Amino acid sequence: MMRTGAQPARSIKKLTVAPLCSLEEARERFEDKLLNDSHVKTRLTESVHIVTPEGETKILFLKNVLPKEIVELAWRTLSILKFSPGKSSRRKALRHSGDVGGEVLFGWIEFPKRGRGNVPWLTTQTREMWREFRALWPVLYFIQYHFHETLPEVAKLQLKKAEAARGSLVGAILNWLDLDTKTDTEREQYRELLTELEQENPDDFLKLVVSMVLMEHPEYTEQLQRAAKAEEQGGTVHPRLGVQDGDLMTGYTIPGTMFSSLTVNRTALFRSHEDGKNFLGGLACLAAFGDFAGGDLCFPRFGVSCPIEPGDLLICDSAQEQHGNIGPLSGKRISIVAYMRGDFAK
After folding, report:
1. Residue 238: pLDDT above 50?
2. Domain region containing 84
3. Other beta carbons within 10 Å of 60
4. 184, 199, 232 — which closes off a domain?
5. pLDDT tens digits along 33-69
6. Which of 140, 219, 293, 315 has the fewest CB atoms lying closer than 10 Å?
7. How far apart are CA 191 and CA 223, in angstroms?
């Protein structure tokens, strides 16, 4: 039976831990290596906040903080995702790990486009599994809540960066339109036309937005018909349907969160690596679901491993710190990692 979370952690032990080596030395010693028990001095079994002697947060392990209902919601949704083979991942640490499992990437990435360099890109899996992605947002809200509660200063910094990454409805429409074959000049012409429409004819612009939402989410058709009927009887139509509700990605963050991207891993063991694409100064949030044993996440520079179980939450500096799994891993485990990419944290 799948284990589930229960009560929030009542206390958090704070530990000051001196790193065993510098970041550069850690990269030379551990990068792309399989980690094992010899790299572990401390295995966390309770809520612990690990900081450096300078006071910098590196690891915050929160034991059993996600509610049972959220854990069950996450598992129901994650278990029906269509995963890509780990061997096809862009991440070397997953491709070379032996038991590579599967991967789904939701949200935004920077992607090379022919003739235009790197451009923001809403992943194909986001479009193909939108309903499942949308169903995971409540899980992210609970994760973000605990981030704010326990690390308010770090969270404020990351939220500020996320606010700067939020975009406009015009940008959202351009991202959803099929403009891949257009030149930069043609794309800018589309942007100018949409901007002019938004400014001079806001009602027509909102009708365009609603039509886009209906194309991507036809389940809203019935809701709109009910709203139109209510208007005939003296009520009002919700003109920003799907926008206010978060069904358009109007910027490079997952609506309502300070995360740009969500990586989902199924039964995957990673070699040691650092998430160099993530926002430096921010922290990633990791949770795991299912019925499994093993696969602890290890931070070799601090000699710390985290045996993450359903209901637990790990907040960590994965952008700078080497980390990887300790095998073996048995059973069924699906983990999620929510983070802000550095490309969008301007």
Report:
1. no
2. 13-165+252-339
3. 25
4. 232
5. 999 999 999 999 999 999 999 999 999 999 999 999 9
6. 219
7. 30
DSSP code for 282: B
Most confident of 91-100, 116-125, 145-154, 272-281: 145-154
Half-sphere exposure of 114 (CA within 13 A, CB side): 3
**Has residue 335 been placed in a domain?**
yes
Q: What's the pLDDT score for residue 1? A: 37
Q: Residues 219, 312: one domain?
A: no
- Band of pLDDT at residue 265, cut at 50, 70 and 90: very high
Same domain as 293, residue 178: no
In a domain, 7, yes or no: no
Please tell me whether residues 153 and 220 are part of one structural domain: no
Among candidate residues 183, 202, 232, the one where a domain is terminated: 232
Q: Indicate the SS3 state at residue 335.
A: strand
Do 207 and 319 lie in a common domain?
A: no
What is residue 249's three-state secondary structure?
coil
3-state DSSP call for residue 152?
A: helix
Region of 101 (left: φ > 0; alpha: ψ -120 to 50; beta: rest) is left
pTM for this entry? 0.79
Cα–Cα distance, 189 to 171 (Å, whole number): 13
Q: Which residues pair with 284 in a beta bridge?
A: 316
CB 304 within 8 A of CB 50: yes
What string of H, E and C letters represents the secondary structure of 87-100?
HHCCCHHHHCCCCC
Strands 304-306 and 42-43, sheet pairing? parallel
Residue 268 lies in a domain: yes
CA 276 to the chain's CA centroid: 15
Interatomic CA distance for residues 341 and 346, integer angstroms: 10
- Tokens in use for 171? 């940008």
Residue 216 sits in the same domain as residue 147: no
Beta-carbon neighbour count of residue 308 at 10 Å?
22
Between the CA atoms of 177, 180, 186 and 187, what dihedral angle is there, to the nearest 10 degrees?
A: 50
| Both tokens assigned to 176 | 């959803």
